[in-house]
């Protein structure tokens, strides 16, 4: 018979080790202790940041699966990178099943938080801001998950990004909800990604409110299956401040919701007001490219029953004065460049009574100087597609409870 003491020892060694909590308080050595905790954490552990102002001179990194980094709230726990050396991101995450919640990042030299190849990641109640306001010297992205499957961004806020406040790229199974993006070039951008739900967000004072793009020559291609519903997109009138050469540098000031070279995009139930170039813009990619995988045309973009004002009264477009005169003082709310792929689904359907206009361009890459503006005539129904996989996996929601 096994002795009781030996049996107890064997049972204890077989039991799972309880998750640890690593608590960090503000102070002179807080940055070192925080990075050490992120390195030494085990899957299931929590790294807890107490309320306070943390001064950091180097970026942070996390590459352990299943870790939660938690603060006391985005107004109470602030990671301040104003004195950061180099140009890297504030926080880089390269591991799976990570939860980031309840803290703020201010003034990183590069991106705010970047996660790459980090599946099933949550950003909840995160604030990223550049406190000097819009500037080309600010970091490109605030919240920046890329090359991942399973992304939930909720109740977060980003301002001042010189590219996109909330950006999701080359990913799938995405939800961006209940978040605020202001004073960025692009408020929210979904790029080369599939099965994305963008809902119940507020985008204001950006150059463009919500952008759905597909670009050539990236590792992951073929964006589509994007649902943009129940967002408030208003007052996106900030002049474009992207650094030279940036693709979003071409977005006109005053763009509400813009879809470029994407397929199966449903835009419905949004309130879109005071976006003086175009409340809705559907266009093809206009630059030359040599990627044989790339389709530069929009396909099956549906503009549904949105609440929108009378249109665009101050467009940042060539020949604006003549356009306004031709359309009676305001451009209709929907702008289409007139381009679609031969033999494919229609580029655009308008399942509502929202009026539009078209540039009537004849070929991809054509100059706007060759446009022949006229009223938009579009079908009222698009091609139905499966939305069952749109949005973040349900298990991510469960982790917030």
In short, what is this structure?
This protein has 401 residues and is mainly beta. The protein has helices at residues 4-14, 30-40, 320-326, 394-399, and strands spanning 21-24, 46-49, 52-55, 60-62, 68-70, 77-80, 91-93, 99-106, 113-116, 121-129, 141-146, 149-154, 157-159, 164-169, 172-177, 180-182, 186-191, 194-199, 202-204, 208-213, 224-229, 232-234, 255-260, 263-268, 271-273, 278-283, 299-303, 307-308, 334-336, 348-350, 356-358, 374-375. It has a domain at 165-399.
Main beta sheet: 20 strands, parallel
Structural class: mainly beta
Principal-axis shape equals elongated
Strand content: 35-45%
Q: Tell me the number of strands.
A: 32
The percent range for helix content is: under 10%
Distance between the termini: 46 Å
Number of helices: 4
Mean pLDDT: 93
Q: Which stretches are poorly predicted, pLDDT < 50 over at least 5 residues?
A: 6-16
Radius of gyration: 23 Å
Task: Please describe what this structure looks like.
- The protein has 4 helices and 32 strands.
- It has 401 residues and is mainly beta.
- It has a domain of 235 residues.
- The strands form 2 sheets. The chain has a 20-stranded parallel sheet that branches.
- About 3% of the residues have low confidence.
Features:
36% strand; 20-stranded parallel sheet; mainly beta; 9% helix; elongated; 401 residues
Topology, pairings included?
Elements (H helix, E strand, L loop, with lengths): L3 H11 L6 E4 L5 H11 L5 E4 L2 E4 L4 E3 L5 E3 L6 E4 L10 E3 L5 E8 L6 E4 L4 E9 L11 E6 L2 E6 L2 E3 L4 E6 L2 E6 L2 E3 L3 E6 L2 E6 L2 E3 L3 E6 L10 E6 L2 E3 L20 E6 L2 E6 L2 E3 L4 E6 L15 E5 L3 E2 L11 H7 L7 E3 L11 E3 L5 E3 L15 E2 L18 H6 L2
Parallel strand pairs: 1-2, 2-5, 3-6, 4-7, 5-8, 6-8, 7-9, 8-10, 9-11, 10-12, 10-13, 11-14, 12-15, 13-16, 14-17, 15-18, 16-19, 17-20, 18-21, 19-22, 20-23, 21-24, 22-25, 23-26, 24-27, 25-28, 26-29, 27-30, 29-31
Antiparallel strand pairs: 31-32
